[in-house]
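Q: I'm writing up a methods section and want to include an example of the input and output format. Could you take the sequence below and give the corresponding predicted structure tokens, formatted cleanly so I can copy it straight into the document?
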Amino acid sequence: MQRVFVFPGQGSHSVGMLAELAQQDRGIADTFAEASSVLGYDLWQLVQQGPAESLNATECTQPAMLAAGIATWRYWLKQGGARPDAVCGHSLGEFSALVAAGALEFTAAVGLVRERARRMQEAVPAGVGAIAAVLGLEDDAVAAACLEAAQGEVVEPVNFNSPGQAVIAGHAAAVQRALDGCKARGAKRAVLLPMSVPAHSSLMRPAAEKFAAPLAAVPLQVPQIAFWSPVDCLQQEDPEAIRRLLARQLVSPVRWTDLVRMLALAGATTFVECGPGKVLTGLNRRIEKRPEIQCLALQDIASVQAALAQLN
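A: Here is the clean output for your methods example:
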């Protein structure tokens, strides 16, 4: 294994994303139109025109990021880009990775992601929960701050994104107490994120239980490209195991640091972020600093052309 495509999740979205690629290739907007046919509203218009408050709502962000990842993937293939040896995704990005791997049909994934987002928002109404990033603090210190701040509520580490970068989530007041505790322990930065649900925390348990039924109804195939998950940092081939993992994912931390290291140990030398922004590319560079490991991002025409020149 050498080349791994990584698909971003919530946090990489923005109003106007993929506009430049869409000017060159109508297929970008067509992918969003496919998603819109499932959703019942114009997803492309929302992504291009906002408002940001609507795009930031979980029920809109998740389908938007799925469509963005697959639109970029299709554009890469149309430009003659080679298929990778493996795929993975950060949280929501796992659905994009499964579509790219041929394990999940795109419109079925749109419906699943919409249901996932709805269940997540129902589990914790807006304003009740919060999610925040902590920079410049070791994982153990972040966990200790959460334990101290809980005080009968929920606040937990939910993303281990790179050395010195974690995300915590839970009840809003407990998250704020934990942020204060992280700052007191020397965190360089501790800030709330513009997301409407405390993803991957134990508060998502009702969502995971309700998501099991729609998940069971959607066909899954054996991935045609090796699929790795940040839930357990392993390659997954069995469709039923993948189905169980997608339900478990809602209440499990995203172990991105461990996943990238495991992929590198398995022989990965190039990580290519497929979708808007370059959040994962920055994380990957902090995780694997060896000069022989490349980290690229497909976010606009220039970056796609540069990746084609390097990888083809």
